[in-house]
Amino acid sequence: MLSMPFSGETTSSEESLWSSSPACREMESKVSEGGLNVTLTIRLLMHGKEVGSIIGKKGETVKKMREESGARINISEGNCPERIVTITGPTDAIFKAFAMIAYKFEEDITNSMSNSTATSKPPVTLRLVVPASQCGSLIGKGGSKIKEIRESTGAQVQVAGDMLPNSTERAVTISGTPDAIIQCVKQICVVMLESPPKGATIPYRPKPASTPVIFAGGQAYTIQGQYAIPHPDLTKLHQLAMQQTPFTPLGQTTPAFPGLDASPPASTHELTIPNDLIGCIIGRQGTKINEIRQMSGAQIKIANATEGSSERQITITGTPANISLAQYLINARLTSEVTGMGAL
Question: What gap in Å lies between CA 93 and CA 95, rounded to an integer?
Fold first, then answer.
């Protein structure tokens, strides 16, 4: 584990990985001499397992990283497959934090290899989230800047061609040894400082994971692993849906709730469903989705599969009652599929 501060003389017989690296010491002196010490914010995109490694047992690892680097390290909330880790502070503090993260990931790789038959050690990989308006400067004319960064640091750098969903940001993937990654991040910081973002940036916010839902005894539960967790918001939705007459003949309007306007305005709701479960919603030749459309009275559109995504988006349009009923029927299909596979 990293036990020493980034700068200053070591005060222990055991030098940390960071302070014992000549390349890192050299970079530290260059940064302080170059007067680059300004406040900057860097955003990282991490999977749940990576975030768990950074947080550590009872939050001890991230606490240590904050204290030793002097950087603010914030981790986005939510039950999401991906999380955003925001690192803010003077550039020297950011480099210290990145060093600690890179070495922690290398430690994780080494530990995982002890239980594996793999012979070649995979590189450490970090994904930065960068405003798309700054990516041109990072790539450079004809790819000259990114080539220069790759050659001078020894790290692999890839800038995603597409923006992250519902944002104006792109993922920049860096992989290599911890030393190469730290030097690469330093150069990327210089580019970002020299070329500030143009216009407003819409930050990427990871979507929550889609979890199957089961209804029992008028209560809604979300399936998490082998357990059913009570979900009060979905229980209200379930109760709302059950007030409807499900089998409304085509061409007739669904009855309105008491006290509501006879024709509530149509609205739209979006769901994301894992690819491996979409088949049970569509059914053979679309029979199940057509049944759900007829029973709910809602318009339901399923987006085409996108390359690299493990989820499909479903858009439901109709009155609040139509939408809630469609959601209920979709969740019922998911539940029957999941329980059929023995998840409970």
Answer: 5
